[in-house]
């Protein structure tokens, strides 16, 4: 099975707002509420792919109760640590006519030291029966700066491989703990390496430079251009299918889910990259985070994975 | 006492978002949640002014439970009809640096016929002990088009005077039932009369024309310009204080609350208009709907009420 960790979970609200403008009054066509936070999105796609998964992290208050109930009714197993404060809400204001997505994230609730310790213990327990642990997203106030470093250490000591998908300081600290794999975008890769990462050649070079530090798998995404991946001794460039994006929120998480699902099933790096990219493309076709399995299979044929030889 | 009726209540969320832009990702500085809907805002200001009040209308689901608890802890008495569906949420995205307020309203939940009948019965019961009933805001799906007309009839037959503050079809129907007072803006007055209402002279003429139809009190607001009021035989023009607006959401409701509070205490039309205008001005100084009583007293000195003689 696979464990996903979401330290800064959220109730994601997608508001469909025609002709969205600043300083105006709008009537939303409809509002879609969904359990969210990056790790929860990963768990949703893993579950849709038929992988045995458990979502953990922190939840609290009325939003937390709503979230765990909604996950249950969606058939996504979860085992969260309950905190004293209220789980946050994140908004996406989607103007389908103009193709804009405006996101507003609420600050996360503060987590106490005791709650953090409970989370570490929970990750340790679940890691024992997991092939992979996915650590995704930002850190809420109150957890140590090196939260991901600690979790990487704990999960690995229990035999699980740990993937990290975060940014900023949380990434820098987690990075030092040498996760088994990371997925970063060009900007984050640039920060880690102290250089600009923009072209295809720079993206490939960045993935190779980063893999030298952690010695495992590194994926550097380049938006709609594609992505570079170094898997063991091999380097790949992946070109995604061209799709008409509806809402890109959660597509990076769908990517990681596809990658982990294939890896869990002992597929090759090439196959895993193709499934991951198809999942990401399927995710942007929907109004909310998640995939339709049939769309993934259709898109899979349009993904191009090339081995980079030089 | 005074009864406020909110058929389309809402949890109002005010998101403080620095540098708010379309198609960007923002971290909100903080989110303020408040029981809302126009009648609930009226009740909040009446309560702050020390008037005995009760808020009724429809609430449902998790948002409804949150709302009634929050009203209770704010000391605002309420007696809502519980519906099967979930109370909606309304967003205000407040960019304090650029002085913009972007509002997004969720569609209201559908109300059943049985729930509507319960509401009519509740209004009848409370109207017996009320001097005024304030009917504010839009109609949710499911209630009759002439909902306000029915409530006006029921409340008046129990001895209460009814004020109406709504728009569109709900206003047209309510209007036909001859409420004891209405507050409309220039645009709504223009719709009722079938002409453009823009200048001070047109605003005064509109208030006089409207009062001929219902024979009671009519207030036509003209934004920051001021407002025209016909109270019995007298016509007034009111110039509000100049204030630096933070968030105007709820200022029309604060106005109505000030008017009703003064009327309930048998103050003159002139005094009631001054208090109402000071309440509206105090409301825009805050991030959320409501007033600070001390600000109202300070602003009261700066309101100019002139009798229009011609």
UniProtKB/TrEMBL annotation, chains A, B:
Gene Ontology MF terms in the entry: ATP binding; phosphofructokinase activity; tagatose-6-phosphate kinase activity
Keyword ATP-binding belongs to the record: yes
Entry GO CC: cytosol
Pfam families linked to this entry: PfkB (PF00294)
Reaction(s) the record says it catalyses: D-tagatofuranose 6-phosphate + ATP = D-tagatofuranose 1,6-bisphosphate + ADP + H(+)
Family: Belongs to the carbohydrate kinase pfkB family.
Keywords, in A-Z order: ATP-binding, Kinase, Lactose metabolism, Nucleotide-binding, Transferase
NCBIfam families in UniProt: 1-PFK
Domain Carbohydrate kinase PfkB stretches: 25-290
Metabolic or biological pathway, per its Swiss-Prot or TrEMBL entry: Carbohydrate metabolism; D-tagatose 6-phosphate degradation; D-glyceraldehyde 3-phosphate and glycerone phosphate from D-tagatose 6-phosphate: step 1/2
Keyword Chaperone appears in the UniProt entry: no
EC number, UniProt record: 2.7.1.144
Protein name per the record: Tagatose-6-phosphate kinase
GO biological process: carbohydrate catabolic process; D-tagatose 6-phosphate catabolic process; lactose metabolic process; small molecule metabolic process
Domain of life of the native organism: Bacteria
EC supergroup of this enzyme: transferase
